[in-house]
Amino acid sequence: xxxxxxxxxxxxxxxxxxxxxxxxxxxxxxxxxxxxxxxxxxxxxxxxxxxxxxxxxxxxxxxxxxxxxxxxxxxxxxxxxxxxxxxxxxxxxxxxxxxxxxxxxxxxxxxxxxxxxxxxxxxxxxxxxxxxxxxxxxxxxxxxxxxxxxxxxxxxxxxxxxxxxxxxxxxxxxxxxxxxxxxxxxxxxxxxxxxxxxxxxxxxxxxxxxxxxxxxxxxxxxxxxxxxxxxxxxxxxxxxxxxxxxxxxxxxxxxxxxxxxxxxxxxxxxxxxxxxxxxxxxxxxxxxxxxxxxxxxxxxxxxxxxxxxxxxxxxxxxxxxxx
Length: 323
Prior knowledge:
about 325 residues; alpha/beta; two-stranded parallel ribbon; 11 helices
């Protein structure tokens, strides 16, 4: 028997890719998406599937409900009947959290609490929380699950609170939560995404100079969407992992300058003029080095990233051209 998936933020970058992945692998009987359409749009979802919408009882395999995670009643009603609740909806990114820390807190803390409440009330079997390396903050990498958290940014603090509530709902109420700390995700269908890979591609295709925050020596762990989605599916189905946290990344450190050199080579191969690069001010709340030890995910989830960075960048650029 397949699973019924409920996905908040389902029209966003990762949400649309997850829908595509679940349909391609035949992993879901029903997929219900919950999104307020402030970033992802119906048109983004329509690129990967046909879907129904609204509160009608006659639903297609993929069904969209427009709503906000700050409305706990709407969230609870919408997620009724779900076996797996994937909570992707969030205020994303360090920069936005520095500009509007209260908004970041409301979306990422209260929104996550509402999602957990809805899942608990509906007896959902597995709750997957999209976290990041940001809760750990200023530590010597690689990041692993046993490190004490020291968040630097409001975003990191809000994601840490989400992890804490996941643990509490598991320990107190028995809701099987799994927190996945995503690395820097890139890949196809990232047209709305503000992360560095998507931003550089958009700037280059528009003939603009590329803006690097700081001197480019800051290191990140870039993970391709297909690898990430395989981890989400493993987290949804493997038994006995309630209450756990996993680093989901490549276990490899790449500086922004190194990634940019690979990407510029892809630009030139695609006939895009070599862009000028501008080095600006370091962003408040950023950490210099952030990459993950993924040995726990390999051991427990039987998962590890497969996509080489240069190939992943090539496939991402191809989507921007053809997608």
